[in-house]
Amino acid sequence: MMTMNKRNLQKQRIMRFFIDAAKEIIKTEGIKNITARRVGETAGYSYATIYNYFKDMNTLLTYCAFDFLEDCYEHVITFKDDKWDCKEQLIIYNIEFFKYFAENPEIFKLVYLEDLGKIPEELSKRPSISRLILDNLNESSKKGYLQKNSIDLLLELMGASIHGKLLFYLNRPNENQDLDFVLQVIEKEIEFLLNNNEVKNYE
């Protein structure tokens, strides 16, 4: 008889097959082409099997979205370097975050534009860019660089700026936008936000 632990491992393994299959379709064919039948074919299972592991396709897509967010986190965290000060590190994190989604527009559509419904509780505990940037802002405050009461607002403003620029950049592909120029604007905006929320005379 299969133990509870083995049964859970098997469940996680099959869920992973479906998640990876759905992610591959999203990346190569786009979110609009995702169907239960296509996911089942790609995963090597009957599409009906999906519903033994996910409540519906929206739930599967939610798992995919958080998986992509974790992929983005893993990409961005590779740029963590002790040689950067807090301000430089924040700029690098935001730039790499933008570049990840600029290069993966279908992932951006899934993560930020699709209505995925209720988020399963276990997914909210995964690593995220937002938490990474928040940790950096908190560290800046502890070191006396930033005003503590500005942290939540700074996080909100940075996120809104990046998301807005991504929407504009990805929805106007025929305007020959210069990615380097957009990244320079992001750098200047973050510098402006941080400089205007510094603790005066912290040096």
TrEMBL record:
Top-rank taxon: Bacteria
Pfam families, per database record: TetR_N
Keywords assigned by UniProt, alphabetized: DNA-binding
GO MF term (any one): DNA binding
TM spans (from-to): none
DNA-binding is among the record's keywords: yes
HTH tetR-type domain sequence ranges: 12-72
Location of the DNA-binding region in this protein: 35-54
Protein name: TetR/AcrR family transcriptional regulator
